[in-house]
Amino acid sequence: MDYSEDIQKQIEAYLLGTLSEVELQQFEALLEEDNSLATFVGNLKEVNEVLQNDSWAFSDLDINNPKTKEYLDFYLDDKNKAFYNQLKDLSNGKEKKKFNIRTLWQVASVAALIVIGIFIFKPSNSIDYNQLYSSYMNVDEIPSFTERGINDSVFALIEKNFNAKNYSQTIEIISMYETNFPPEKTDFINIYKGITYTELGRYDEATSLLSEESVFSESLYNQMSQWFLALNYLKAEKIAEAKQILKEIAKNKQHYKFEEARAILKKLD
Amino acid sequence: MQKFDNEYYLNGIKARDNEVLTSIYKEFLGAVTSFVIKNKGQQEDAKDIFNKVIYQFTARLERDTIEINSKFEAYIFTACKNMWRRELMKMERSRVTNSNIKELYYDESDLTMATLEQERWELFNQKVLELSENCNKILTLFFQKLSSKEIMIQLEYGSEVTVRQRIFKCKTKLAELIKGDNRYNELMSN
After folding, report:
1. Residue A226 contacts B where some CB pair is shorter than 8 Å
2. Which of A17, A35, A159, B60 counts the most CB atoms within 10 A of its CB?
3. Whose CA is closest to B21, among A80, A101, A86, A79?
4. Pairwise CA distance, residues A160 & A162, whole Å
């Protein structure tokens, strides 16, 4: 593609990040108008990002890419993980030894129990709903898959990404494997997925998932999803909807998060 | 297949042959360790990335071949350098974005991405080699972040404008070559 000297200069300056604010706005407007220029610039940008020596071009997990799934399957395979442990032994100068699968599960269980995200709520005069949400969104209290007797690499990976707040990846991994999940496990997957959508600001998708009644009539699941739905509404600043659910929760002393629901209602009133 | 040629190492990794693997660690881990220690890392970091690179090769060889245009020693060293650069960038990103969250664990999804990124990096570099010698030289200097003036002096161009125009043309050609390769789509996320 032939571009004038002037456009070439602008492209290079754009890629180097040396355009002034006004020039940048003008150039971005041009890119929006001209699709072929936008594609061309995108290609050059990618070349720069991958090949420049002082950085690294990261990519995202893409469920539509079959190669991604193949590699992920490879790395999730227990036999391959055992091989990886042999490599670690080699690097430490140890002899090859037989891999004990129980050890892996013990390690995985410990990893799955490592949780993060303790937030401290600081009261203020005006209500910051996002802060209020954060102070009550405690992922520590969600039962881990391992605690629920699910010893599976995929679930461990979902949980690990979720606990590390890698929410985009959490969604990608769930989407990649969810057709293989046993139906009875979908409830708790939905909790993880629902919270993940909330964290990503995809409130409607979270609402839809967390509003689903369990087909297995598991009351804890239903109560938990109700609570996280209320928090989802809170973060989305749909306060009337949040209050309605919190009032439901506050009616029943045995309900999951009864006290917390009452406390939030007090703050909202 | 001769002992210690590229095929010997790649076949050994694919077969998970303990003798070959032991020789790879013995022969090549030392150079990687020196590099990592000189570049903000420690011995444990070097072992870690070396293990990951070998593991990554195993995953790739399970589904495909690995095309190596150099000696295995140089190839593994470059792959480790890339992996270490990636780790340093990850640490930096983690520090900048959220210092409270420890993201520096390795998991299967991260290994998957690292593998695809390394493959993409190799594809892009293979395509640089397909360019003319002149383009190859000028782009190599450009990606090393030399200024137009420095490139002008080093490659004896008449002016900086000529250098910039040449870089632009070479990069355009490079992007075309990359896009035209069937492997490109396999390696890109949408």
Report:
1. no
2. A159
3. A86
4. 5
**B20, B62, B66, B112: best to mutate for the A interface, most A CBs within 10 A:** B112
Mutate to test the interface with A, among B21, B91, B109 (most CBs of A within 10 A): B109
Give alpha helix (H) positions in A52-143. Answer: 66-76, 78-91, 101-113, 129-136
How far is residue A175's CA from residue A195's CA, in Å, rounded to a whole number? Answer: 15
Facing residue for B186 by CB, picked from A47, A67, A83? A67
Would you say the pTM of this structure is higher than 0.80? Answer: no
Structure token pair of residue A86: 């042999």
B162-177 residue pLDDT tens: 999 999 999 999 999 9
Contacts of A182-191 with C-beta under 8 Å, sequence gap 24+, read: A183/A215, A184/A216, A185/A145, A185/A150, A185/A155, A187/A214, A187/A216, A187/A218, A187/A221, A188/A143, A188/A145, A188/A148, A188/A221, A189/A158, A190/A225, A191/A142, A191/A221, A191/A224, A191/A225, A191/A228
Alpha helices in A138-237 (DSSP H): 153-163, 167-177, 186-199, 203-210, 219-235
pLDDT digits (tens, 9 = 90+) for A30-69: 999 999 999 999 999 999 999 988 888 888 888 788 899 9
| H or E, element range at B74 | helix B72-97
Q: Among all residues of chain A, which has the CA nearest to that of B27?
A: A91
Which whole-number Å values give the CA distances from A140 to A29, A117, A223, A258, B133, in the listed order? 46, 7, 16, 17, 58
> Tens of pLDDT along B63-78?
899 999 899 999 999 9
Inter-chain residue contact B178 with A47, CB threshold 8 Å:
yes
CB B188 within 8 A of CB A50: no
pLDDT number for residue B112: 94
Distance from CA of B153 to the nearest CA of A (A): 20
Q: Which residue has the higher pLDDT, B82 or A177?
A: B82
Residue A51 contacts B, CB cutoff 8 Å = yes
Q: How far is CA A87 from CA A164, B37, B85, in A?
A: 26, 21, 21
